[in-house]
Amino acid sequence: MPSNIRNENEVDVLVIGAGPAGLMAAFALARAGVNVRIVDKRPDKVSAGQADGIQPRTLEVFKSYGLSDRLLREGTQLHVAAFYNPSKDGLGIELTDRVPDVSSTDTNFPFEAPLPSIQLTLHQGAIEAIFLDSMRDMGLEVRRPVLPISIEVQAQADSEERDAYPVRVVLKHADTEETETVHAKYVLGADGAHSWVRKMTGIAMQGEQTEYVWGVVDLVAETDLPDIRNKCAIHSNNGSCMIIPREGDKVRLYIQLDGKEVVDDAGRVDKSRCGPEMILDVARKTLHPFTIESPQTYDWWTIYAIGQRVAERYIVHDRVFIAGDACHTHSPKAGQGMNASMQDSYNLAWKLAHVLKGTAHRNLLQTYELERRHYAQELIAFDKKFAKLFSGKPYSELNLDGVSHAEFLKAFQTFGGFTSGLGVQYPESIIITSNQNQHLAKNVLVGRRLVPCPLLRAADCRPTDLHDLLVSDTRFKLLVFTGDTHEPSQMAQVEAFAQALMTPDSDSKNFFGGFSSLERIRSVLDVVTISSEKKGTIMYNRLPRALWSHWSKVLVDDLDMRGTTGGKVYESLGIDPAGAVIVVRPDAYVAAIAPLNGASEIGTYFANFMKAT
Amino acid sequence: MPSNIRNENEVDVLVIGAGPAGLMAAFALARAGVNVRIVDKRPDKVSAGQADGIQPRTLEVFKSYGLSDRLLREGTQLHVAAFYNPSKDGLGIELTDRVPDVSSTDTNFPFEAPLPSIQLTLHQGAIEAIFLDSMRDMGLEVRRPVLPISIEVQAQADSEERDAYPVRVVLKHADTEETETVHAKYVLGADGAHSWVRKMTGIAMQGEQTEYVWGVVDLVAETDLPDIRNKCAIHSNNGSCMIIPREGDKVRLYIQLDGKEVVDDAGRVDKSRCGPEMILDVARKTLHPFTIESPQTYDWWTIYAIGQRVAERYIVHDRVFIAGDACHTHSPKAGQGMNASMQDSYNLAWKLAHVLKGTAHRNLLQTYELERRHYAQELIAFDKKFAKLFSGKPYSELNLDGVSHAEFLKAFQTFGGFTSGLGVQYPESIIITSNQNQHLAKNVLVGRRLVPCPLLRAADCRPTDLHDLLVSDTRFKLLVFTGDTHEPSQMAQVEAFAQALMTPDSDSKNFFGGFSSLERIRSVLDVVTISSEKKGTIMYNRLPRALWSHWSKVLVDDLDMRGTTGGKVYESLGIDPAGAVIVVRPDAYVAAIAPLNGASEIGTYFANFMKAT
């Protein structure tokens, strides 16, 4: 045992569990400068199999941390969803349709940029490695194998006192049998479907076990199926199958199994009754007349029964949280699991960072449960509908009650916004306004993540999506749509806004007026200024200096120099020509819309949960 | 001195000089599996200043080696060329125009992809670091400081014998004063404008010194010039200036100086007579009414007189080569120097690799001088014209002989294909055919690098540019444009072609029939198959197996699944609906066009310089 582990330690946040949810939390907190520790009971990280789908919204989040290059390089891109159904001769299956794998979330936004709309596959171990390597660069390592022994939330838990360490956790280092006591300000249980933290805090799961049993196998497939490199949903008269291409030449097959054959008397899956060959045999019947050979080795396989459950609470005493599989379990079909888990802790991390830094009140933390439990409930509802359609017998003249391709495709596309993660909607709260100013930005949906906005940097005409500036640095972002700054009267409006909002110690009684310096304001609020002036004439340095901390933060709504991308963002978002200000949260969700003369409105929004410093 | 340096060593290729030309050569040869050594007389690599421009064609070459990500991440992108000219009031300068920095090379190809058309700036040291890191991964290090003492080409130089080491070079390790003798099959002198190899082999430079003296300074500029992040060409009544944005917030200023003030009696630049402040003072007069403050420190600066010269030969005895500044010197204005140098050795490396592996005859090597000296002569001709325009006084009512903006812009755009590197044309030779079959691919220019062709992978509809498959692996690429493979008669043609060309030991008397296996053919010739069938119906695995070594090598000419990019490549290239085969060299230059029944024509092309193995 390393000698630097003492028996009593203090830490701001202790993360228990180093799967995707725990690693995202530890990484995001460390990046935000929070003192964090992470432990896991397993001796090593996942090396193969497990979760594999990366939804477009997750890719966006990785990009906001500068981590998407590696995901894109290592992952397999899915562009096509192919549908196979019984052929007319009734003897097997045939190709019915090939459609885009990710359907547009919202017809208002036909310009969703290519990058975030790609679905990727990459095995869980590779994703964990991205976090582990980035954490190591910041001096943070997962301590393992470490088991939690006890957890206790002490009396001062409700204190607003920032120096309180009210959560006491005893850990056992399994390799040395030594124990240590950790005093934490906050604890996150990201310890999986059988969460110890959840059990110890007495949080119940709500929902039920389903009748569905799934077999999953990873292999390099020798096959004549022409869509083996596409996502395939196959409905045959002999069962259903889903194919997901993986890294290199690997694929994953999902097969629904007959529960009776693999479930024991107690209702649990009995792995001794089955194996990958059994799964492949079922796949062969479904794929006929296409063939698939048995490989030399199987990369990974599993069989499991599906529960559809959500935790009744995500937070205890505002001090202990659970995230990921500890909160929700469901089927694997829509590739949601790992994504939902990472999004849970991504949602929590920036809130914890603000509270720990003293820039926000503790009431901010409650929005974590509100937002993520709401999402999980929608996820289960979706899962129930989709599982039914997927498992149904295909429609035919002999089976008029069956699921037709049109019906299945419609469901696939309807849920596209949800399964891509791009259309997730958070409910109204202290950080999501009721949206009084929709007329100023007609197509901007408050409570959803901001859509991609292809613009140009004014100073050098480099194509820049707004998301390139919505980096995950825990700062709120103020998007100042100035209107046409070539007009002197409009420029005067912009100057007045800058004066009213971005000037500390002003007489305006504005919330930000209470900050001690412009630097302090900028430490919680970055400003991006977007003019509707054209690239040929704009002089970025004529815009008020308080509205851009660097020349790269002034954008114009125009086509790029090649005339091929960018522009029409004012039109697409429905921005009022007189200008508008959009408040975007640190996680890129739209929080509020205000007019250019709405500095006090914006101040009121922040005063609800933020402290002037 | 490390003990593993013996006094007598053998090596396939010895590279003398580790600047951009030498490093590209050593890297490219090592990547091709060639036994190479590289030495340099300087104790360290360049750390600041020097060359900085990366032209689009160079970016393409880096991409073909998988090295472009780092260039794009570290480099600054230039999108705009801004032009400033005397303002109407005559008191200073004003913005005249902003145009794309890279103009399209050829109006036949409006679809040039965004990536390769970006001009980047990145300092020479960073570019050298990319090579050094990649070489280190292959176990190759630059030995320094090492001085060459003597070079001697022995009698067996002209031998076709692959095991001959006819070049004898004595090296001195400057740190230990020890010498060693290297016996090399080939030697490359990439040792700069004052090349020792050039002098020792008695190669003369042809051309002249110019009257132009330039001052160059790198700094972080505090200025109110709104185009400080764009490339600026500034013509004032007080002189000319060029601004090039660099990494971070740095910029480089190029100023033409009065030769009399800085040149000594012998005509050499006297650096003691000037400094960066002097350069900046001249810039201030040119930029008025815009201001520029003196920085705390200057990153780098230099002053130099320009020679416009080309070496009379690039090759001695087909065994010793020179490349880069050793072959050509010219002005820095078009950012050509480092690019031309790397392209020299990129051109040479694949030819040397084939000769050393025994897959090509030694006659291939002569094309190096033919192609790169031809290019250097064009470069000097361009430089003369452009320098005159750049240095000229601006046109005004008082100076009717001056250079007008329209005239300067026209020259800037006319030379765009050349300065971007995308429009370089190699002359006819044993590896560039006279292009008998233009009608089969009307817009494909033999002797030029293949233009970007946005296609889709048939198996998974992933957007893929043909250049993504034109990797620098020393293999020639056969682009088989099959026509519509949905038509059985067309498919029969494609099958016949595969049989005639890609079948070893056939009775066809075809050159590739003489190879001992399909694998041997593929070791020198990769095949990419491009169908005009549509993505919704194509079954990639129905195409002849000999025409794709992997599922990723079958492409379709269609829009991507989002309907935004790709397609119309048959139309843009003017491909005959009956199909066509395009032979592309290992460096992505188009070598020949043939019909689908032209297997023997293709064989004849290769038989000119290649050996069946």
Q: Which short descriptors sum up this protein?
A:
homodimer, 613 residues, alpha+beta, 8-stranded mixed beta sheet, 27% helix, 25% strand, disordered N terminus
Q: Could you say which structural class the secondary elements and strand pairing of chain A correspond to?
A: alpha+beta
Instruction: Calculate the terminal CA-CA distance of chain A, rounded to whole Å.
Output: 42 Å
Strand content of chain A: 25-35%
> Percent of residues of chain A in helical segments?
25-40%
Detail the poorly predicted runs of chain A. 1-5, 105-116
Counting H and I runs of at least 4 residues, what is the number of helices of chain A?
16
Could you report the average pLDDT of chain A, rounded to the nearest whole number? 90
Return Rg of chain A in Å. 26 Å
Largest interface: A-B, 38 and 38 residues
The quaternary organization reads as homodimer
How many E-type strands of chain A? 26
Question: What would you call the shape of chain A?
Answer: globular
Largest sheet of chain A: 8 strands, mixed
